[in-house]
Amino acid sequence: MLKQILSKLPRKSFKSDTDESTRGDSARSSDSPRPVGKSQRPHGGSSSAAKRASSSAVFPASMVSGFEPLVPFKDVPNAEKMNLFVSKLSLCCVTFDFSDPSKSIADKDVKRKTLVELVDFVACGTMRFSEPAILALCRMCAFNLFRVFPPNYRTSGGGENDDDEPMFDPAWPHLQLVYELLLKFISSSCLDAKVAKKYIDHSFIARLLELFDSEDPRERDCLKAILHRIYGKFMVHRPYIRKTINNIFYRFVFETEKHSGIGELLEIFGSVISGFALPLKEEHKIFLWRVLVPLHKPKSIGVYFQQLSYCVMQFIEKEPKLASIVIRGLLKYWPATNSQKEVMFLGELEEILEVINMVEFQRIMVPLFWRIGCCINSLHFQVAERALFLWNNDHIVNLIAHNRSVILPIIFPALDRNVQSHWNPAVVNLTHNMRKMFLEMDEKLFISCYNHFKEEEAILISAAEKREEAWKQLEHAASLRPVIGNTAVLVS
Amino acid sequence: MFFNGKRVAPPKPLFESVQRFQRVSQSISSQSRFGELRLRAIDIAARHEEKKMSLVEEPLYPIAVLIDELKNDDIQLRLNSIRKLSTIARALGEERTRRELIPFLGENNDDDDEVLLAMAEELGVFVPFVGGVEHAHVLLPPLETLCTVEETCVRDKAGESLCRIGSQMRESDLVEYFIPLVKRLAAGEWFTARVSACGLFHIAYPSAPEMSKTELRSIYNLLCQDDMPMVRRSAASNLGKFAATVEYTHLKADTIFKHGSDQDSVRLLAVEGCAALGKLLEPQDCVTHILPVIVNFSQDKSWRVRYMVANQLYELCEAVGPEPTRTELVPAYVRLLRDNEAEVRIAAAGKVTKFCRILNPDLSIQHILPCVKELSTDSSQHVRSALASVIMGMAPVLGKDATIEQLLPIFLSLLKDEFPDVRLNIISKLDQVNQVIGIDLLSQSLLPAIVELAEDRHWRVRLAIIEYIPLLASQLGVGFFDDKLGALCMQWLQDKVHSIREAAANNLKRLAEEFGPEWAMQHIIPQILQPMTEIAQNRDCYCHNCYGKTLCHSTLRNLQRDCPMVVLYCNLAMPWPGSDDNGTGITYDARVRYPFQSKLSSVLFSVKSFFSSSNVLEMISNSHYLYRMTILHSISLLAPVMGPEITCSKLLPVVITASKDRVPNIKFNVAKVLESIFPIVDQSVVEKTIRPSLVELSEDPDVDVRFFSNQALQAIDHVMMSS
């Protein structure tokens, strides 16, 4: 019976196998003697017309024929089912050119039906997966899923057509089934993690993570669900998964600023963080400081801001002492010219302040309110408004009231400037209300601040003059002392 | 703190205060800049006291000025002071710069990235200020710190500065200071240090003693296998530079390629390294070590890697010599030309000529030409366009027969391509084309292509073709040009897009240069003048006062900005005898002696009348404020040309009305316009009309309107006072 099944397998040329090994491709080909064809690119191919495909996969012309469906699962005895499972998986290792919808329609349908059968088989979960079955499934996923994305013309083409549709892989109908199969497989109770970890290994995970850069949100969604399960099931791989995702984040923040899947990866981290045991390990705190906080820097933060701020809040809820560290980081990466980002930062700030305790608050209030003062003065009314809305929050007002002797002197100049000259009436109004609030809170302090402010203003002007004078003198002194280094003089 | 051991007892109280400042700042390091600020204020106050009591010959404290500014909240001030570091250093003198300034900078590394970036840059050119190369090593510690910060730009700049300093340092200093620095960075805990280290090896290595050399090589090897992909990428991209300094015998052993990375971003950079290495190796070593790697890369599963190979393949061919090229690289190249990723084909197609040049004609015809034929009908326009830009270079390689037989059909089909860029690329290489296929054949196929491009709906395409017209003219000759292209050149003058009109005017000037003034008088001038004089005749002419008088250059220049035809006339008229080139102006005699000048004056005349026509002024009531702004702008340009009379009667009322506009941008532009036109009108008008309007604007709620109106009022006052 089994022989029969195997004989029905499409026989692929061994030639492509040898091609493959010379390339040193990391695909797991070494341990499989089965004549299963490689669907990867045979570059020495001859027909050029077929190569005009816009997708990035290449299909050898030889393998389109002789593709036959295997018997359904219900027709074989239980003992044979696992073998049939492997055979069906091997059948699905073949990939098709979807850029031309008229090509090999029948074969595509055979594969689709087989995939559906496989999904059903895994879903009903009656039998423990044998080791060859696990291997075959990983191989099949590798052949179908692990591909290099085509170039993204939108980002290279000068941003003129930014609102183009994202690039969708034409092979999605099959990809979707493969993803579903992988998800069901990993979450299946019939999968022994101890055996499977040999095949769902570092390389497999790394390549799975690379796929998060897909432009297709559906694909990223599937990946997210799968990675979640892998993280849950394979304890040994957890550190590796975290490390690899971190590398993706580092590359995004420090090198490219381009990645489609940051939001999804952060979402995974959101639940990972909530699972951290207390007290937090040093490693995890470093992650907060080295990864999550710098993620506030890229200009595309809007895409993943929600997930990012969720992760940050998870940390602070676990360990309130981290609040001041995070705020310090926010202040470091505070946007200078991007008003939308500034509004987001203010939002996150409010969330943190909502839960911060007094000690932490006092630790950062001086630089924090200096920055808030700047925001209150922002010419972008949304920024100014958002900053002033902080005073609508009872907890924050309470914190401020306790520390008013420090905070009011810092933001007083900002309030005064707004009342004098802000162009937006709503902002002026809000500022007035706030002044009134402070006045009612502590009249004496308010008046002393006012007086101090007037004095300070005069001092500032004279300080600026003094500074200019000092530089003039310095320059004079410098001109009297020519440089006598024995290299060429480099004067800026 | 690095330098504590080296500090000599400081002679000046200044140093104590600096030290105290450092102590203070350490004790409060957990506090903010603001805490420091307050303490710094106390510190400075104390120093001022000291200053009064001590030292008359030391009038100021350069470091104090710097510290003062570096602690300021205003980032602009902090940046300014860093930008003037050299001034401070010179005022301090070399010795104290080394002893005080540099250590201070080393500790001031917790600032905004922008400030750190400026610091990294300044330190790179600081060698003269610390006393020349023998002291250059004191600059290393602060830069080492900067090499480890988070921000990539700062790290890159610091690395760059370190290389610059290192390349000037004495060999013994390099051994004593620079090499340990590289090792420290390479062993850095955080990846930023290790990334920076990779870029410094090529400076450190040459002067290292044998033992260190071995160590440095093994460290670099470790970096190539680092745990973090960021470090591996940096190691791969710096490999070429480093390899160039490594002795030949070690080269083969130390290569990153043996570690092949599963990250395509790393492999990508390794390709570049391969090309660099290939140039360093002897051909036969190149064949044994590099060639297999490159052939492998050319079949990589990532198109980015293959793209890189396509870009670098040519250089490798040079490195390995003709025989291996034929057997190994030609097949690889052919594969790349037929790659299924367009991006790769683009890169490969762009190199087709260069590649053919190092092959012999037979091979080219046999292997490359069929691919070229395929590429000329490629589905991607970018591929065709890349091919079109280089294909003509193949002609000399292939020889005349093969060119006519094989290349010409490809060439002609590209010239009829539906995508304008492709056609343009062919036309831009026209001189080469002409030599190969001769003018008759060319003109038959060329003309339709040009006509179509001339009417393309993308103005950039039209612009590009205009720029090639003079080249065409010189290739094709006057006769052909008059027949076919003359009309096109005139048509462009009336294009909707300003840049096209401008280019068209310049084009006519270049044509006139090409064919000579006689030709221009005959063919260009009458055709242009007609529409212009029509305009002049059909409009009410307000302005007569310029005719026969003197026009200044600036007026001309203003008009040139708005009207391409004026540009043309000016270009044609200026070099001719009779134009007054002494800077005062052009004389317009009633008895005009030179035709160009007479044309010029009539054109100017008609242009003025065109602008001042009531139609234009009506646009001031257009609902879109940008149009109203444009009119304000033209009024400010026109007023000096029109003279006081018309300005007062026609233009000024418009401006005054605009001052009541509801958009602040209009209002402050009114203020600007008024400021520019008050000198040309009578004083009574200024007092009666302009000043009241400005006074009103100076009380506007908008801050900018107030600013510009006050500025205008001040200007008026200033002129009144001086007169």
Q: What would you say this structure looks like, in words?
A:
The complex is a heterodimer of chains A (492) and B (723). With 492 residues, chain A is mainly α. Helices cover 63% and strands 0% of the residues of chain A. With 723 residues, chain B is mainly α. Chain B starts with 12 loop residues before the first helix and ends with a helix. In chain B, 42% of the residues are buried. The interface between A and B is large, with 56 and 66 residues. Chain A: InterPro entries: ARM-like (IPR011989), ARM-type_fold (IPR016024), PP2A_B56 (IPR002554). Chain A: One of its GO terms (molecular function) is protein phosphatase regulator activity.
Please compute the radius of gyration of chain B using only Cα atoms.
Answer: 36 Å
DSSP, total strands of chain B: 2
- CA-based shape of chain A: elongated
The amount of helix of chain A comes to 55-70%
- Give the DSSP E fraction of chain A (strand runs of 2 or more residues): under 5%
Backbone CA Rg of chain A: 31 Å
Number of beta-strand segments of chain A: 0
Helix content of chain B: over 70%
Order of helices and strands of chain A: HHHHHHHHHHHHHHHHHHHHHH
Name the chain pair with the biggest interface and residue counts per chain.
Answer: A-B, 56 and 66 residues
Strand content of chain B: under 5%
List segments of chain B where confidence is low: pLDDT < 50 over at least 5 consecutive residues.
1-42, 48-59, 528-618
Looking at the chains present, what oligomeric state does this protein adopt?
A: heterodimer
Per DSSP, the total helix count of chain A is: 22
Which regions of chain A have little confidence, pLDDT < 50, spanning 5+ residues? 1-65, 155-163, 485-492
Largest sheet of chain A: none
Shape of chain B: flat
Give a quick account of the main beta sheet of chain B: strands, pairing sense, barrel closure.
2 strands, antiparallel
Rounded mean pLDDT of chain A is 79
Tell me the distance between the termini of chain A.
85 Å
